[in-house]
């Protein structure tokens, strides 16, 4: 299975887009929406499971990123290479709204 994962990754990388100094693998037929359960765990013959008592965040969900991110006094967050001036909570609300409709 690791070789199958690697070959799919290479195939997606070959179809990637470069913008500035970053490489983006855009959604396409290679990036199926499949849970880790069915994509990897259920197909594995040799797997070890352990009980973990942790808070779960769906990393593919924008609101989850907002929940765990360090926020400014208005409740906004941004990535490392962002400079915000006079931003109010409308950014947070806009991101939440966009997440709800997509």
Number of domains: 2
Shape: extended
Q: What string gives the helices and strands in order?
A: HEEHHH
**Low-confidence region ranges:** none
Number of strands: 2
Give the biggest beta sheet.
Answer: 2 strands, antiparallel
Describe the protein.
It is a single chain. The chain is mainly alpha-helical and 102 residues long. It folds into two domains: 2-43, no CATH class; 62-101, no CATH class. The protein contains four helices and two strands. It has a two-stranded antiparallel sheet. Strand 1 and strand 2 (22-24) form a beta hairpin. It starts with a helix and ends with a helix.
Short description:
The chain is mainly alpha-helical. The chain has helices spanning 2-14, 36-39, 62-68, 90-101, and strands at residues 17-19, 22-24. It folds into two domains: 2-43, no CATH class; 62-101, no CATH class.
Helix and strand topology:
Blueprint (H helix, E strand, L loop, with lengths): L1 H13 L2 E3 L2 E3 L11 H4 L22 H7 L21 H12 L1
Antiparallel strand pairs: 1-2
Give a quick set of tags describing it.
single chain, mainly alpha, 2 domains, 2 strands, 6% strand, extended, Nucleotide-diphossugar_trans
């Amino acid at each position: 299975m690791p070789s199958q994962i690697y070959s799919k990754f290479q195939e997606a990388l070959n179809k990637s887009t470069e913008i500035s100094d970053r490489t983006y693998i855009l959604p396409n037929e290679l990036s199926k929406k499949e849970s880790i359960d069915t994509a990897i765990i259920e197909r594995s013959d040799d797997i070890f499971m352990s009980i973990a008592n942790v808070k779960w965040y769906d990393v593919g969900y924008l609101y989850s990123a907002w929940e765990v991110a360090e926020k400014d006094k208005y409740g906004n967050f941004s990535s490392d290479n962002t400079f915000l001036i006079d931003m109010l909570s409308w950014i947070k609300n806009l991101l939440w709204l966009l997440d709800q409709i997509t």
